[in-house]
Amino acid sequence: xxxxxxxxxxxxxxxxxxxxxxxxxxxxxxxxxxxxxxxxxxxxxxxxxxxxxxxxxxxxxxxxxxxxxxxxxxxxxxxxxxxxxxxxxxxxxxxxxxxxxxxxxxxxxxxxxxxxxxxxxxxxxxxxxxxxxxxxxxxxxxxxxxxxxxxxxxxxxxxxxxxxxxxxxxxxxxxxxxxxxxxxxxxxxxxxxxxxxxxxxxxxxxxxxxxxxxxxxxxxxxxxxxxxxxxxxxxxxxxxxxxxxxxx
Length: 248
Hints:
Number of strands: 9
CATH class: Alpha Beta
Number of helices: 8
Strand content: 15-25%
Shape: globular
Number of domains: 1
Radius of gyration: 17 Å
Helix content: 10-25%
Structural class: alpha/beta
Distance between the termini: 54 Å
Mean pLDDT: 95
CATH architecture: 3-Layer(aba) Sandwich
């Protein structure tokens, strides 16, 4: 007799919960940990950069509630008691910084939010490291069919406008290239979540709209600028596509 494996499609919306995160990211992270690790959260490792002082960020819950170890980095803050290092991160130095601070080759949770060159730094990380859960800020002012990435500038910083980062489509193309699937975007269009494909397969996971950008995309809902995002770029700078940025 043969039995089919029934996979329940998981809808993550109801799990959003803010404990230390800026929005509902903590609740989504906790649910994904439950699904992936089945309560075994021992000896896990996280990396997050762009955390400011580390009080409000996506991985504090892993440190405080789950007692994981990890590395946090920020361009303007340092607190060695929580292993927060002051570093200005570029695509040229991000891998060297990981090696400097002894980041393992496999990271359980990786979170990126540096408000500018996120795409390019993530590309270098995925070429050299693997992770289970990936959280990254996307530019939700770009619609789900728009492939848009800022032009790389190693000295670039966010200027308060909507010229930053990359669209959800661009991030999804990058993550799919390295074996990750899009599973969720938080309700106000700030962060997207990816899971490594072999985990999805081995754990028999399925999520509502998984991999479908048009279903998972959430529009920006955090300011009064274009499409609900930050104010329009006063310099009217250009964007590049995934195909143009992947070899930069």
